[in-house]
Design brief:
Shape: elongated
Number of strands: 9
Mean pLDDT: 93
Number of helices: 13
Structural class: alpha/beta
Order of helices and strands: HHHHEHHEHEHEEEHEHEHHEH
Oligomer: single chain
Length: 374
């Protein structure tokens, strides 16, 4: 659809006066060009303006102004430029600073003197090579991370996944020892992911079995299996450390993960979790989410235009079957350029047929979500 035609249709849907329409069209054109049209599920001819028209039409006329106001004032869209900055800054802001502090303490010098002290600078270079970076999912943007640190990190210390067999570990050790010296092992592992909203995928206590599960547990199990297959050959130093970094986190997840790490470490088989450190590129403000107690008028639309057929066994893992406020009731007005997380409000991403006989609303997405589970 031609954008001008789409805007005229939008003006009719919203019943705007000519003066109001001109003002809103200026904002919509700007935001479409700078941000929203980059959403990866959009296609030629069906981009933000067209999806906005379809999305607004599902609401009764009195509710459309509230829905539009929510998109204009509350929606948070994280596009390629914002994510690239977070990827670029990860090594410098988190990893390098930690290395400098560690080496400076060992040398009993201020961290700013590491570069000007020959022995400390050599130690930094060697210690940097003994780090291993692993992606927890496709969202880790390992390709971008690798390019951002060309000349600083070796390609042989950056891998796209965490579940490696003994053969891959031997290859990594071979390259490490070629660069650093015989007998060298990794001193630290960094697990990287793009976003954490509730933290249950990373670490959670299973309500049925009462055991700890999640990506962290699976990583350790895979690592232990590889170690058993190495015929006694060491992969990691005796004092190796594990770091988990997310480019973006909700305040809920940041707090919950620290708490769960402490709780899980009390389990006899999970004491190793005590030494896990967490870092985040940015933490979203605590007042960002919406919930049933929020005063925002859009919350009434969230309740009124919800179809419970989007609920499934995967949503139940969180302990909350309802997805009205997103997975684990995170209530996020959040969209990423590559997808919309299920922790976001479903009124933004869900698509259903509805049931007129039961007076269940057919949901229409503004930013259609690509589901991993169904």
């Amino acid at each position: 659809m031609n954008q001008d035609l789409g805007l005229r249709l939008l003006g009719q849907i919203m019943a705007w006066t000519d003066e109001r329409a001109r003002a809103e069209f200026e904002w919509i054109r700007l935001m479409s060009r700078l941000k929203y049209d980059s959403y990866e599920d959009f296609r030629a001819g069906v981009r933000f303006v067209e999806r906005l028209c379809v999305w607004l039409q599902q609401f009764d006329q009195p509710d459309r102004e509230t829905a539009y106001g929510f998109v204009k004032d509350r929606l948070v869209y994280i596009g390629p430029a914002e994510m690239q900055i977070l990827v670029d800054r990860f090594y410098i802001d988190v990893v390098e600073r930690h290395l400098l502090r560690t080496i400076a303490e060992a040398a009993a010098i201020p961290s700013y003197k590491v570069w000007s002290t020959a022995s400390a600078a050599a130690s930094l270079k060697q210690r940097r090579r003994t780090l291993l970076f692993m992606g927890l999912s496709d969202g880790a943007r390992i390709d971008e991370f690798r390019r951002a640190n060309t000349g600083i990190l070796s390609n042989e210390q950056i891998v796209v996944a965490t579940q490696l067999d003994a053969s891959k570990w031997r290859d990594l050790l071979k390259e490490l020892r070629r660069d650093v010296g015989a007998g060298s092992v990794f001193s630290a592992i960094y697990l990287i992911d793009d976003f954490v909203a509730s933290g249950t995928t990373m670490l959670r206590r299973d309500v049925e079995s009462n055991v700890w599960k999640g990506k962290l547990i699976r990583f350790r199990e895979t690592l232990d299996e590889a170690l058993r297959s190495m015929d006694g050959e060491s992969i990691l130093s005796a004092d190796w450390s594990l770091h988990v970094h997310h480019y973006i986190a909700t305040s809920l997840a940041a707090e919950a993960l620290h708490k769960r790490l402490t709780e899980a470490a009390e389990t006899p088989s999970q004491e190793w979790l005590r030494s896990v450190s967490l870092s985040f590129g940015t933490v979203l403000p605590p007042d960002l989410p919406l919930n049933e107690d929020s005063s925002d008028p859009f919350c009434q639309l969230v309740k009124r235009y919800y179809d419970p057929t989007i609920e499934n066994r995967h949503s139940a893992v969180s302990g909350e079957m309802s997805l009205m406020w997103g997975y684990r009731k995170c209530g996020l007005p959040l969209v990423f350029e590559h997808n919309t997380p299920n922790n976001s409000l479903p009124i933004l991403w869900a698509e259903t047929d509805g049931d007129p006989e039961k007076k269940i609303h057919a949901m229409r997405p503004l930013f259609r979500r690509r589901q991993r589970h169904s």
